[in-house]
Automatic annotation (TrEMBL):
The keyword Hydrolase applies. Belongs to the glycosyl hydrolase 63 family. GO terms for molecular function: Glc3Man9GlcNAc2 oligosaccharide glucosidase activity. Keywords: Glycosidase, Hydrolase. This is Trehalase.
Amino acid sequence: MNIQIDKVPFSRFGSYFAVTKTKEGTILLRDVHGGDEAPSTLFEMRFFKEQKEVKVKIEASERELKFYQEEKTEDAVKLILPTEHHVLLKAEGLTVGLFAKKVKYDTFHALSEDTYEYHIYPKERKLLFTRREGILQVDAPWEIIGNPHVTLLLSDGELLVESYVTVPGEGFSGTYEEGLSAVQEDFRVFKREPIGLQEKYRPSFKLASYITWSSVVAPFGALKHPAMFMSKLYMYSIWSWDNCFNALALAKERPELSYGQFEIFFDHQDSSGAYPDFVHDKYASFNCIKPPIFPVFYEKCMKENAYFAHRSRLEKAYESMKRNLAYYDTYRTFPGALPHYRHGNDSGWDNSSVFHVGMPVESPDLQAHLVRAYDAMARLAHALKKDEEEREYQEKAKIHAKKTLERLYDEEEGFFARVGIQGEPVKNRDSLLLSMSLLLSRYLPEPVLKKTVERLLSFETPYGFATEHPKSPLYKYNGYWQGPIWAPVTFLLVDALYEAGYEHDADRIRNKFMDLTLVGGMAENFDPFTGEGLVDTSFTWTSSVCLLFLRGEGLCR
């Protein structure tokens, strides 16, 4: 593989270490503990030949980083992550400098002639540097309470770096080549090539596989299970509703890892029934409450692997999801109204034009997610032989779908949203968010279904569905949820088109998305006309949707 570390971090399964290059060309060794609000840069990496700083070319694969001078490829610095806790640097002909990005109380000191400990105060972690061979020059003078600066220069040798909280672990005693082989094998076992993979999409498959593999971090702190972060570039946390797409992509071959993506939110569920907005190793945040899609995706995982149907696992998931659905009736519904959002981020469509008038908002997408969740819960209740609860969920789905049509649909213009405690209709109907009502297809009369599909298809662009109608005055280039294409929305709508019987349209949009990944990679979102990858260029729900589409998994076909 050829990975561009200015777009996709170099990392590995389980590791909190990542290496990236900024737009300005600065190469950074980073640590993603503490979530995306915490500083992540540990060191700036610079390179020298005969004491003069030189620019380097970068070769990055899934197993190794190599920095070299263009005219002298044999002079190089190589880097691997032999375990989730270690970085191993090997300098041959070039000198690599590590320049710490430190704060006041960070401290660096020698423990022996060849070992040094670096206490990184904001991270509440320590790094152990061990010179294995070669020349290591250290410049870390002491000044009252710490070091004003820390610089390490490695020449013609190896430097092992270990991350820990209190004391080092067992360490890594293998050779560089053994570490290289171990990483390669770990990725090989993780990657599962779809049967009949088109050669055209092989680059997308490889990149998606690498991002899903390398974005996982080991259990630590608030994370009791391995967690697939949304990214190790910017959004290094696991987010609710994002996690469901990742869990589904893992379900068939990695069911234990997949179940853990649900379980992290079960672990942190609030007494009200709400799931956290996101979780990382430090804490869980409840700032916003994402759409209730867990039951639908859990059921999809069950169809991919019987692991999820095991009585104890299913029971745990069912009881947790039951409390989560009750949250909407208890805390998010006004008398005579439908459940609502209180923040754009509640929906996952943060700045959608539906929310420009104010809050709270009753939106068709939330109602569709609830109805589908009730349907899924009825089937899960049936599997658990909870007959009364099965009937209750079936009835809730029917009643809720009927109320949605009565309150959020008119024959003239289709679905719309309501805002405020009085439930005033939102005039703007140019957000694709309203077309998520297609997820209600089994409850929609044929004329309503046809009209809903026609409206949805009017959002189609060369690469798929724009999130704001291209003719809308609010459409923006790189407008986040006001134009760009998003992988999870694409998956949900393709799935809904299949379920509604519009297979030809579903196939076309699915193929457009796959072509999009060849242009824009696995970005957080994409320009719908050029395919350019936007915002975070290494995002796991995009890589997961890519893998699901390539494998044909998780879809109502």
